[in-house]
Amino acid sequence: MVPPLSVGPAETPSPPSGSNWRSLLGGSGPEFRIGLGRVIVSSFGLAAVYIDPTQPERFVTTAYGLLASYVGFAFLLLLAHRRVAASRILRIGSTIVDIFLVGILSYITGELESPFLIFFIFVLISAAVHWNIKGTLCVAAALQGVLVTVAIPDLQDGEFDANVLIIRSVFCWVLVLLLGYFIAYRNRTISRLGELAQWPHEFVPDVDQPWLAFSLRHAAKVLNARAIAVLWRDPDEVGSHIAVWREGRFRLIEKDGQGTIAETPDASMADWRGQIDYLQRLDALPRLSSAETAAVYHSTISTIRYSGRLFLLPEGPRDNDTAILTRIVTARIAIDLEQHSLVRDYVTAAELKERSRLARDLHDGVLQSLTAAVLELREQERIVPEVSHHVAHIRASLEDQQKRLRQLVDGSFAKQQSACCLADQIGLFVEALEPQWGCMISVEIVPGYLVTTAPIATELCLALSEATANAVKHGRATQLRVKIVDRGERLSLYIADNGNGHLAPELPIPASLAARARELGGDLEVKRGEFGLLLQVSLPATLSKVSLA
Q1: Ordered structural domains, the chain, with CATH
Q2: CB–CB of 522/537 below 8 Å?
């Protein structure tokens, strides 16, 4: 029978055995350990002199007094280690006292043969913990001065031990050399951790810096990398996405960005070396020798949605710290991938919600008003036969706009993914556009059989409609020349009008056309042409056309 569960007051568990020793060796601050070391050194020095008094005997009492004072000084600093750690002046003062007492004790207890010269090691190590390399060099220079001062009596009595002075001096400076590596390593680690703590947040990509550019640039700075490549896959998509930071430049190869999705059909892609070969074929990583390939750091990306790997090509040789930081950076970039996915899904949901609201407003407002206007014009055709021809023309134009709005509200533009001949689409559109604005429009498409998707054809038609309206309303144009040219990698749309827009001191930039071109991954340029004002829209061919018929 299971005994009932009794609930009583919470008890604080006792710390595990050995926790105090772990705190002493690694958990406490450096100043506490320096203070404890000073207490141990001075206490054992006092005990050693008491057991085996130093020479000459006339200074033994003085040595006892100095060592006893040193022990008391060491205990005071140990008790006040937190205050010493917070005060630069106290740390400098404690170092000066250490140098002074070690020098006096060495001078009165055997000079160059003094056992207290071994205290130099403690002073140098504590200086390395306290200060940077400049401070440690200053302490080493002071200790070198102590050595020379202690050796002066030997010079005067003719018993100078040059070999002892040389060996002790060399030992002192070699120790400084080794401690310099420790100081540089510590400073580098602190700097790296500081940079890592300042990881940029890029929930929404910047206009000039695409998604993941900030993260990879910062990772290259933290890890001192020549190149970083991130390869990841979405299980719901075919192929892989790649983000690269190399030689100060960012490159993104993904389905929704500039470029095409990277197909990865090779079975060798499961192996990290196969992935490096694949990245080299795409010029994401430079060509590497076998030794350089072995030096590449790689870490696995595994999130709820994505799987992949990060590759890092270091500037210098491999080291354990960079390997650990690479795993940390990989985890942070994996979080960025998930955050971007969530933000993208949220934005898509918001766009759909806003589109639904806008469609509802258009249906309930503008479309109903257009319907009422069409019915009123029909009634006027019947009542006033004399102007029925002009009224019918206006009614047909309104009905055409009403049809387009209904298509937009119903989302039929987005649903039409079949291929269509661009010349036919533009020609039908221009037939209705010319009488609407009273403007002659000539169209030339190169090649004439260019095939595109219906949504892109619609975008081009809407751009032409906006450009025509602007040319007539603001530039008083009566003629437009339209030319669409397939240039292989780009599709160029030229719209020239004979209005007076080109006479303005500053050429107008149509905001709607610029935004439409930017959303399609292209750009808009306004120039003064031979015919008048010239608008040039350039679109990526991968987004603008399908295979030729």
Answers
A1: 25-196 (no CATH), 213-334 (3.30.450), 416-544 (3.30.565.10)
A2: yes
